[in-house]
Amino acid sequence: MSLEKIQNISYGKNVIELKNISLSFGGVQALTDVSFEVKRGEVFAIIGPNGAGKSSMLNVINGFYKPTSGKINFAGQERSQMEPEFAAKSGIARTFQNIALFKGMSTLDNLMTGRLLKQKQNLFMQALYYGPAEKEESFHREQVEKVIDFLDLQMIRRTPVGSLPYGLQKRVELGRALAMEPEILLLDEPMAGMNVEEKQDMSRFVLTANHELKTTIVLIEHDMSVVMDISDRIVVLDYGKKIGSGKPQEIRNDKAVIDAYLGITDE
Amino acid sequence: MSVELLNFIETVLNGLMSGIMYSLVALGFVLIFKASGVFNFAQGVFALFAALTLVGFQTGQVPFSHLINELFGTKFHHWYPEIHSFLAIFLTILTMIVLAWIIERLVLKHLVNQEPIILFMATIGLAFVLEGVGDLMWGSDVKVLDVGIPSGGSVWLENATIGLASEGSEYYGMYIDVLNVWATVIAVFLVTALAIFSQYTKTGRALRAVADDHQAALSVGISLRTIWVFVWAMSGFIAMVAGIMWGTESGVQFSLSLIALKALPVLILGGFTSIPGAIIGGLLIGVGEKLAEIYIGGLLDIGAIENWFAYFMALVFLLFRPQGLFGDKIIERV
Amino acid sequence: MIYKETGQYKSTYQSDHAIFPLMQDKVAFAILMIIAFFVVPFVVDSYWEKAILVPFLIYSMAAIGLNILTGYCGQVSLGTGGFMAVGAFSTYKLMTSFPDLNIMLIVIISGFLTALVGILFGLPSLRIKGFYLAVATLASQFFLVWLFNKVPWFYNYSDTGQITVSERTMFGIPVTGAEAPSYATYLFCLTLVVVFGFAAKNMIRSKIGRSWMAIRDMDIAAEIIGVPPLKTKLSAFAISSFYIGIAGSLYFAVYLGALEVTESFDIMAISFPVLFMIIIGGLGSMLGSFLGAAFIVLLPILLKNFMVDLVGLSAVTAKHFEITIWGLLMVIFLIVEPHGLARLWSIAKEKLRRWPFPY
Questions:
Q1: DSSP helix/strand/coil, B252
Q2: Strands laid side by side in the A14-25 sheet
Q3: For residue C315, pLDDT beyond 80
């Protein structure tokens, strides 16, 4: 990664700011007073041991969980919670730790669902499937084909995703998120359960998306070597609390982080 | 006490007792759903089939006699005179066990790992098969079922309550069918036995393990298939009890199988997996239905709202408490 | 090699997502349409019309409707009978209130009215899922049938509770009532099924269809990519009910002519059979809706012919056999091919592609 880019990003504007977020379910405190901000165009990683509240954090960002307290500053407005539909409309896409694809649909259809919010034809025109409706379908198909080319999914275009191997499913899921042309892409353990080669492929896709499509990336990952390699900044969570943040080098040397987490996992 | 209050008490009592019948059918559903994840739509037809078989054995009917007679021009009807009802019940229980075994062998075994909706549809198919076979075996005429359970209004209760009304009012005592009292006693006995069984025996423990987690149960060496045959047989037994009660009251005929539809609101109210839910849900629906019939049905002057009122009750309840009576709060995860 | 696709290249996305991308399919479908529209009307007699063709078309319509809701959107419904009754009674009330209204219009308005009722009964689907919802749809079945049975306004206070159709014409030819010629009722139903069949197929391959399937396959993920769950589910309920309402309208006006609600729209008479159609035909398949409907219309006729006429059983016993065989077939079908006749058809096509070579 070039130095120029890093500088660029450190001066980048904040796309989303989370202030003092707390979240609890019944008696369980999942997040306590967590604050951080994500800058436009960076690869931002959230790390921490299992149960640290990383996925909950992503769920708060895209509105699936409503924080008990705290503020989210997004799109020039301070709000106390997000709505999933609003998040999707404002360009936040995500993938899931346990693959959440539409298993009965083909790869192509799964990617096409990423375009749903951009399709504007009304029900009557859809039923007619003629003229503008037809053109719209073809246009979005073209966009989706670009994603298919980018992720090398041509061979499985018509295959129902339920029958695909795990690594490919993860890739299709990334494709669906990319098809939304997101501004912010939330990736929940995109490389879990993959072998080294698949991890390299995935890292390449993530970085290319970041460089070429200018997508801001928020990433949860357990593989420290991957995290240290591809991310610009990192926040560390432990038991729902933020225990450190900064550039990869800083995290590597942070005493609190090493005690809580790094010292044990880093290979 | 005022007559209104006495009438109200009578309605509630009758509601509780008809509720017990719903609970009984719902219990059969819950057992199977817990152990095998199957929403067994055939539960009602189980009751019909059991009742038909019971009458058949009791009166010594030749199975398939109609069919044989039509095909070969013979005139079979009965091969022995009436036998004692205990023997007939015993034979029926055996039949239900064999039936459970056949169902496991021929249907469930081949449908493991299918979508729940497919399994559900298969049980609808099963319901049709059992209905058809039941009719072919024993004929579709309305049959009288009498295993010696007393029925009719309780004279004792009528006499005991007639004096409770305030002086001078016209009150003739409460009416409660003795059959319902018996049904309640038997149901309470059954449920207690079931609770003790599942709490204190090895098979009971295995049953609870399977209900909790199929794969974990398999991994500690519990045979799923044995458990399945067992719960289906048990549900068959419960269906038989329900069939006897209902059959005694209104004769054994196709409409008996529709009690399943009556028990379904109980399931959404109490939850598909909760035994206490089935019991309390049944009671609530029984009482609610009877009260509605008298106080709302009378108001509307249309009547016969019991067909859908139970569903309505269950739905309204679910809107406020989606997890059902005894469910934990649902936290959706991704 | 009869069914080969080599050499058929597509250069536009438009041709790639056509309904029948292959030449063979296009030709076969065109021939089918020509026969259906220009040959059958001249040869159809009253038996074929009443026993096979019209019921087949009407059930196809209902099956398409239920398939949209259950097969594509994943919301199991046992309330089809109730919704068909809404279509039938809407038609009756419209017919008697507006004697000059065109019958085609009446049928379509009935569809819209049923869609409204469908939206109403679809509301619980936001909070209730799976089997709980299936049971909840039974509420609509029982409530609607009860309503049409107990509120005399719906059957214009007739003593029997029956509703009876009056004669209506299209282009001067009666399509409802006892005088309607076979070809007219058949063409009337056929036109509606073809037009709305295409509309359904188009919706399914458009945005709305993908939204339905997304909700069916994983509602949480669908919500997060921006599919609004309530709106999408309600649209499925509405459109599904629209089709089922039209089916109910035709069932009353064109097919039966006179009916009584508890008998004709009972859960056993409609809800379950239509559910079988889409299961046997294929959940989430347009072709499956038609195959399932054909199967369910033809099977009883074949069984009856076989058992009553050939074996010589009495009608009652034959009926019992029919029920048993029904159930057996369902179970066998689900075990052997849970994806239904439509899947068998695509397997057969796959075989034809290579025939006569084994691979």
A1: strand
A2: A28-39, A14-25, A69-74, A77-79
A3: no
Selected residues 221-240 of chain C with any CB under 8 Å from a CB in chain A:
221-228, 235
Q: Answer for the pair B27, B188: CB distance below 8 angstroms, yes or no.
A: no
Domains of chain A, each with CATH number or no CATH: 3-265 (3.40.50.300)
- Chain C's closest residue to B316, CA to CA, is C124
The vertex-C208 CA angle with A157 and C57, nearest 5°, equals 100
Q: How far is CA B154 from CA B145, B164, B233, B290, in A?
A: 20, 16, 34, 19
Contact B234, B210 (CB under 8 A): no
Judging contacts by C-beta atoms under 8 Å, the chain C residues touching residue B121 are: 275-276, 279, 330, 334
pLDDT band, residue C289 (cuts 50/70/90): very high
Segments in chain A forming alpha helices (H): 3-10, 54-61, 84-89, 107-113, 123-128, 132-150, 166-179, 196-212, 224-230, 248-253, 255-257, 263-265
CA-CA distance, A208 to A151, in Å (whole number)?
A: 10
Helix residue spans in C18-79 (DSSP H):
23-34, 40-43, 46-47, 54-66
What whole-number distance in Å separates Cα of residue C97 and Cα of residue C163?
Answer: 13
What tens-digit pLDDT sequence spans chain A (267 residues)?
333 444 444 447 888 999 999 998 877 888 999 999 999 889 999 998 888 888 899 999 988 889 999 999 988 888 998 888 889 888 999 998 888 899 889 999 999 999 888 888 888 888 888 888 888 888 899 999 999 999 989 889 888 898 898 889 999 999 999 999 999 999 999 888 888 888 999 999 999 989 888 899 999 998 888 888 899 999 999 888 888 888 988 888 888 887 776 555 444
Chains sharing 3 or more CB pairs under 8 A with chain A: B, C
Cα distance between residue B248 and residue B146, in whole Å: 6
Which of C67, C206, C239 best probes binding to A when mutated, by most A CB atoms within 10 angstroms?
A: C206
A-C interface: how many C-beta pairs under 8 angstroms? 102
Nearest 5 degrees, angle CA C194-CA C196-CA C200?
115
Looking only at the bridges linking them, the beta strands covering A233-238 and A241-246 are antiparallel
Chains A, B: CB contacts within 8 A come to: 10
CB atoms within 10 A of CB A215: 22
Closest CA to A1 of A266, A253, A247: A247
Decide if B120 touches C, using CB distance below 8 A: yes
CA distance C132 to chain B (A): 6
Residues B312-330 have a mean pLDDT of 74
Ordered alpha helix ranges (H), B139-223: 155-162, 178-200, 202-212, 214-219
Spatial distance between the Cα atoms of C168 and C170, rounded to a whole number of angstroms: 7
Q: Could you tell me which residue, B64 or B239, shows the higher pLDDT?
A: B239
Domains of chain C (ranges plus CATH)? 40-354 (1.10.3470)
Residue C216 forms contact with A (CB below 8 Å):
yes
pLDDT tens column, B70-120? 777 777 777 777 777 788 888 888 988 999 899 888 888 888 777 777 888
Q: Which residues contact C342 (CB under 8 A, 6 or more apart)?
A: C281, C282, C285, C287, C288, C291
Q: What is the pLDDT of residue C290?
A: 94
Please give the C-alpha separations between residue A158 and each of A106, B52, B287, C302, C349, in angstroms, as whole numbers: 5, 52, 55, 39, 17
